[in-house]
Design a protein that fits this description.
By secondary structure, the chain is mostly helical. It has 5 helices and no strands. Helix 1 packs antiparallel against helix 3 and helix 4 runs antiparallel to helix 5.
Length: 147
């Protein structure tokens, strides 16, 4: 058994164990993939419009959109697995925690100069991503306990 940087165990889970917890984990991953892909597509399709609305550089939104598109596809791939590998789920949880922290840190450090809409959107999306990470972590723990 090994651990990831945030201390998440990467011990394997046995296929077919904890069907309810496993189903919940896969649904949380699928939700994450869908929300991430939707944000990616919005950032890529409307970087100028959203940039003006949020007070964020269009280039930053385009870069974030490209990253989120790849990230969302990877999370979707995990969600499609009958038993997602714990190391992959751990990486998603950690990625989500880092994304949430980065958004909060960017605001706190004054790196961004968002509009009022941006000052609402950035912490709101960070809170949603952090809550999703917590739910994914708890579901992964439940799968391991039942297995």
């Amino acid at each position: 058994m090994s651990a990831t940087p945030l201390g998440l165990s990467t011990a394997p889970t046995a296929p077919g164990t904890a069907p309810g917890a496993l189903r919940l984990l896969r649904r949380l991953l699928a939700l994450d993939a869908a929300v991430t892909a939707a944000n990616a597509l919005a950032y890529l399709a409307l970087p100028g419009t959203l940039g003006r609305l949020l007070g964020v550089d269009a280039g930053l939104l385009t870069g974030a959109g490209l990253f989120l598109l790849v990230y969302g596809a990877a999370v979707g791939l995990l969600a499609s697995r009958p038993s997602p590998p714990p190391a992959g789920v751990g990486a998603v949880v950690e990625g989500n925690v880092l994304w949430a922290l980065a958004g909060a840190a960017a605001l706190a450090a004054g790196v961004l100069e968002p509009t009022t809409a941006g000052r609402v959107w950035i912490p709101l999306q960070a809170a949603v991503v952090a809550a999703l990470a917590a739910a994914q972590y708890l579901a992964l723990r439940a799968v391991r306990r039942a297995g």
